């Protein structure tokens, strides 16, 4: 049965629009794109379009999706998807965390994904370092709007009967709450991954055993002296 390219594009677009902080949503979209890999250029263009058209929350979610997507594409040996991400990575970063500072809240997420792509050997250390140098100005750019300060200034203006200043670039409350919840989920997952162990710690035990020195007469003497000091302290009470 012939698949309608327009329908594939629309479904993939919908999946990108509904991405959230869960790995499952990213994997679902990645599986779909890999299923229709013969349309890789068209589906890659969907990613770029959605980055440009969506709000900052969605852009952050798509950024995390890209890391998951590249990893899965590499495992399934479909290099074209990875090469297109490598080619357009600067454009992607500029959309998720624009140079004008409007996406300052996304800078830390961009860095996290870039480091992940470097660890997975999808991006080179030189590329990540070059992009990171440009991100330093964006997280403290004066164009970045401080929502709390803006709310305070607006409330003060209303109290004085003045007209509140323009709130261009304001993020609505629902988006803020959604972002907080998604960041909490990502941080939780990050902490869990930091504590994940393989379960095979025989090598580590062996290393500790090799590094530890044998117990000698000096060790027994030091222990005896410490015991005597403790007994003296107890007796002095």
UniProtKB/TrEMBL annotation:
Residues 4-139 form the CID domain. Signal peptide: none annotated. Residues 169-192 have a biased composition (Basic and acidic residues). Residues 148-208 are annotated as: Disordered. It comes from the Eukaryota. It holds the Pfam family CTK3. This is CID domain-containing protein. InterPro entries: CID_dom, Ctk3, Ctk3_C, Ctk3_N, ENTH_VHS. One of its GO terms (biological process) is positive regulation of DNA-templated transcription, elongation. GO terms for cellular component: CTDK-1 complex. It comes from Aspergillus homomorphus (strain CBS 101889).
